[in-house]
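Predicting holo structure, zinc ion bound.
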Amino acid sequence: MSTHFLCSGWSYGARSGILTPMEIDEGVHAIESLGIGRAYIYQEQDRLTLIDTGLANSADKIFAVIEKIGRKPEDLKQIFITHHHRDHTGSLANVIDRSNAQVFAHKIEAPVIRGDQPSPKPDANTLRSVLRPFIGSGAEIATPARVDRELEDGDELDIGGGAKVLHVPGHTMGSVALFIPQRKMLFAGDAAVSAIGLGPPAGPFGLFNEDSEQAIESFQKLAELDFDRAFFGHGKPLDGEACTLFRRAADQLS
Ligand SMILES: [Zn+2]
Ligand SMILES: [Zn+2]
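Done. Tokens:
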């Protein structure tokens, strides 16, 4: 059944301010020069929240962006980790050392991030062999780092007036996305990806999935939300009509 009617239309009037050259959306900064993947800084008056940390050696780039937007390392109060893959956790230990931020990750990922459990392997359906030479050991664990709060589905975080944690297993079993209803904004991590080449504008990630079937189910769950903008671990953000594009892709998968 199509659920397109639930998806609200995009309006530029929804934005209250003018973006600075550093912003990809009001208060949202992308850190793109991480080799593989993207991290994001969500800027608020009293705090910065970092969403993922990139590969190892990305900390300098992250703190350079923080400096460019006129903030200090100690303004970084929260780090939201979407999943344990090292292109998302590679610089976590370094960023913690330089900021003392609280780290949030799903309870399934926390022992892997801490180094207490080995990194689970992707399933046989995944296309890891295609891109593995470029991503290197992208599916392996990074330097162990602390996790302060173990998340569960439905938890609420103090980001953007109340952000909802969505457990979206499949890519990894403890993958989480962050949904900010007031901003109609979704940070999907690797539970979804935006267009690569001539592919559809949005879809489930095809690489390194621990359970590819669950990854599709989780993508379909995300497609039921009402959001205008989506930010991904890989691929360009979708700006406007994001959930319409998700639903189109979800319909084709079912
Ligand atoms: Zn991943
Ligand atoms: Zn990734």
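Helices lie at 59-68, 86-89, 92-99, 110-113, 128-135, 212-222, 242-253.
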